[in-house]
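Progress against Task 2.4 (sequence-to-structure conversion) is shown through the following example record, which the project officer requested during the mid-term review.
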Amino acid sequence: MQAAQLLVDIENDVAGAVDVCRAALAREPYREELHQAIIGFFIRAGRYGEAARQYRACERLLYEEFGLAPSPETQALFESMKTVRAAERAEDDPRRPFVCDRSTYAAIFRLDLRRLARTGESIGLLRVSLGDGPLGPAERGRVEARLAGVIRQGDVVCWESPQRLVVHLSRARAEHVAAVRGRIRRALEELGLSSVFIEDSIVRPDARPAAVREGILSGSVETM
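Structure tokens generated for the chain above:
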């Protein structure tokens, strides 16, 4: 497998690396590390369909010959592929809210504050805390997918931590923020999240940019 790994690392030759592993599989078809390597190479190249087919082939082979499931390592590799693919689809789906990290959100927030000064509109902010414990990537993906049904395309979601997020509602009045708050709570409870706490606030045109920005990103939202 070292030769296959070198082909990928040095020459970015995924096809060549897969051929090397498949040649070895012809001699040792039950050697699970070879299946793992092929699945990993396909994931690295973004060839998710081929990675899934290799996993299914490995799964079928082990079950038919030994009555066994793939090892936890192989299953984890397959699950990681599904998580990556789900995240990529979320980024590509224009129907979903924009999800970003804290530094990107800080820039978006600054721009929206400038817009407020010109238009006199307000920003609605919802800080959602999930008391069920830190969520993994797959669970966060399900939360984002559910939020897509209750907030607008132009709104922003920023994860502050694995169990806390900010929902940024542009051009939002108090009644809109209250309505969205209720929809978010119901949507998350339908996911089976039993402990959902939501703080809401309105940022008005006369907000102090530095104070508000620091409050949002440090976890103490300032209500205006």
